[in-house]
Amino acid sequence: MPELSRRAASLGTENAFVVLAEVNELARAGRDIVSFCIGQPDFPAPVNVQDAAIRAVREGKHGYTPSAGIDPLREAAAKYMGAMRGGLPIRPQDVVIGAGAKPFIAYAILSTTDYGAGDEVIYPNPGFPIYQSQIVACGAVPVPIHLHEARDFAFDPKDLEKLLTPKTRLVILNYPHNPTGGLLGRRDLETIAAILRRHPRVWVYADEIYSRLCYAGDFFSIAQLPGMYERTILSDGASKTWAMTGWRIGFASSPALAPVFTRWVTNTDSCASQISQWAAVEAINGPQDAAEAMRASFLSRRDLIVGLLNEVPGVTCRLPGGAFYAWPNVTEACRMVGAADSEEFRKRLLHEAGVAVLADIHFGARVPGEGQHVRFSYAASKQAIEGGVERMAQFIREGAQRA
Ligand SMILES: Cc1ncc(COP(=O)(O)O)c(C=O)c1O
């Protein structure tokens, strides 16, 4: 059998998909599982968006499009992204449409680092697992920056200062953050920008896919700070805001890199689905009631789950500022049930109590001194949240008695 490349052999994954397969297998075997695994809205895409897609099909709008996307969507996305970010002067030609926001992670790394040259990319840990996986696959050097519970899961800008070297090419930021729901507030972003101004060769990738799910005041982007817009790749999309994960529409903006990203799209997907692009035009330009209702629902479910988790023995949970994730500290709960770590805790919680969550190690190496965490995606019904957290409390109470 011919050999695989080292790159392919070392390629990471999103463990959410692996755990989900485990959950589905248990469900098929008849187990009753309450799942908090999957990071996607539990709503259908808005009806006006569905209608726009059907119209596009009926009107024959289903061939290839330009790789950068159809003009109406680039225009809509430019206007939308700019308005969401304090009136940034984003032009349609600065925006590239992708098959989701995810491909832009690879395009950004591929466009700013060279394979095997020792080029470094700083990324949040814990963090979206694709950052580290793609940095390694692209032949760059992954440099994790640790997030801290005491800072509501922001990193300490002083750590950034220490990690930046002459080899640093790219800094990945993500706010609101997956998996912790943490934010980088305006003050932190100002400090980060001040540090980065002393490193003009470094690009910034601002993963702002959860920008509309920000509960602690108006969303603020690092690109709004002086000198940052030109060197920041802004990434956003339709998946989380309009419950369109499977439609695969993301938008990235960068005046300098848009032509490069366009070439990457030509080399990979050719273009995002034309049908989904027309639907995304409607998502952005049409009524926003459904998006606003989803946001309000996530906010009330955040308050519900965080309140309930903080009543569970051995569990403490910070109030996440955005997205739809809670990241409770289960260090004491692990001790109570005799679990060696969060991963053993997660497995036992799934098999013994039928509650599916992800463990911190699915989002990078555990941060020393920060204890054990698991991730709940609270894009689940109120009933699932109440029932699932109660099962977890019961599991810990019984486990503590047995241990
Ligand atoms: C932090 C982060 N970035 C990017 C993405 C990718 O989103 P999309 O569906 O637009 O590819 C996700 C999806 O879970 C995410 O959590």
Provide a brief overview of the structure:
By secondary structure, the chain is α/β, with parallel strands linked by helices.
Total tally of structural domains: 2
Tell me what the CATH architecture of the largest domain is.
3-Layer(aba) Sandwich
Any idea of the CATH topology of the largest domain?
Aspartate Aminotransferase, domain 2
Q: Quick check: average pLDDT?
A: 96
Strand order of the largest sheet: 2-9-8-7-6-3-4-5
Q: How many strand segments?
A: 13
Query: Could you state the oligomeric state of the chains shown?
Result: single chain
CATH superfamily of the largest domain: Type I PLP-dependent aspartate aminotransferase-like (Major domain)
State the helical fraction.
Answer: 40-55%
Distance between the termini: 49 Å
Major pleated sheet: 8 strands, mixed
Low-confidence stretches: none
Q: Structural class, from secondary structure content? A: alpha/beta
The DSSP helix count reads 14
Overall description:
With 403 residues, this protein is an alpha/beta fold. The chain has 2 domains: 6-32 and 290-402, Alpha-Beta Complex (Aspartate Aminotransferase, domain 1), CATH 3.90.1150.10; 63-285, Aspartate Aminotransferase, domain 2 (3-Layer(aba) Sandwich), CATH 3.40.640. It has helices at residues 6-10, 15-28, 47-58, 71-84, 103-112, 129-137, 157-163, 186-197, 258-267, 274-285, 289-309, 331-337, 342-353, 382-402; strands at residues 34-35, 95-98, 120-125, 141-148, 154-155, 168-174, 203-207, 232-237, 250-253, 325-326, 355-356, 358-359, 374-377. The strands form 3 sheets. Strands 2-9-8-7-6-3-4-5 form an 8-stranded mixed β-sheet, sandwiched between helices. It has a 3-stranded antiparallel β-sheet with strand order 10-13-12. A two-stranded parallel sheet has the order 1-11. Helix 3 (47-58) packs across helix 10. The longest helix has 21 residues, at 289-309. Bound molecules: pyridoxal-5'-phosphate (PLP). Pyridoxal-5'-phosphate (PLP) is lined by residues 39, 100-102, 128, 174, 178, 207, 209, 237, 239, 245, 250.
